[in-house]
Amino acid sequence: MNLLEVKHLKKYYATHKAVDDISFDIQQGAIFGLLGPNGAGKTTLLRMITGIFYPDEGSIQFDGRPFDPQNDVHYIGYMPEERGLYKKMKVGEQTLYLARLKGLSEKEALKRIKYWFEKFEISSWWNKRVDELSKGMQQKVQFISTIMHDPKLLILDEPFSGLDPINANLIKQEIFQLSQQGTTIIFSTHRMEQVEEICNHIMLVNKGRKILDGSIKQIKQDFKQGLFRIGLGVMPNAAQMATYHFNIVQVHENAFTVKMNADSTTNDILLHFIHQGIPVTYFEELLPSINEVFITQVQQTEHTAPAVPQPA
What we know:
This protein has 312 residues and is of the alpha/beta class. It has 11 helices and 14 strands. The chain has 2 domains: 2-221, 3-Layer(aba) Sandwich (Rossmann fold); 225-285, Alpha-Beta Plaits (2-Layer Sandwich), CATH 3.30.70. The strands form 3 sheets. A 6-stranded mixed beta sheet has the order 6-7-8-3-9-10. A 4-stranded antiparallel beta sheet has the order 2-1-4-5, covered by helices on one side. A 4-stranded antiparallel beta sheet has the order 12-13-11-14, covered by helices on one side.
């Protein structure tokens, strides 16, 4: 079941198309990576999904019905890249205030705050002002404030900013657990290694347009380039490497990276060495990283500017 269905969404400003006819679906419980370079339209898209902006055209379905910003905002948790904590306010008071804004009673809010503060080992921060905390400590408070009301849709924009590896891992494990419990998560970041580790589906946008949409596994398969790394027990000489089945891309210690020719197979590569009595110690396909796919696809769209909408 899809928790979110976005159809032909458009948002135009005077000089450019911020979001240009974007459609996508997100299944319940998915961790959906929203990717794109600076100025690609990600923030505008997120603000329409959260009801902050209204689209010029298109529709949003939330949990099987038309999105109603006034009511559905209570089912959404949004942690923007620009943090929204009040720096002079005490941590406990602020967390309680934000929980009440999401519709929790004072009793229920205090119960949940206590649970999360104990889980994140920050109970002693209750009477500290936000500006007394480090950026990473503020990030933990922001994360708790975002998820305390058990949102159906959780939007995280650069959630690991300022966190040390231990606290980053803590937040990451909570993201996985929330997903397993059925929370749908939109995860936006410029750190592609985090995308590969956390997300199961991604969408790449640039200049307001969707240029890529699919599962991590399928995208890596779609953009593979026939590269393989083969480890050898004995390094062959030039004559033993000569073949029409592949070209040598890089030489390593006791290994080669090769690019397979279009009319050859992996068996052809392996048999080439086996027939010469050269032992093969390992053989692996080299799939592109999401970072490599990101760079390639964005560069291909950089020189195609969308038409500026004309006033009626």
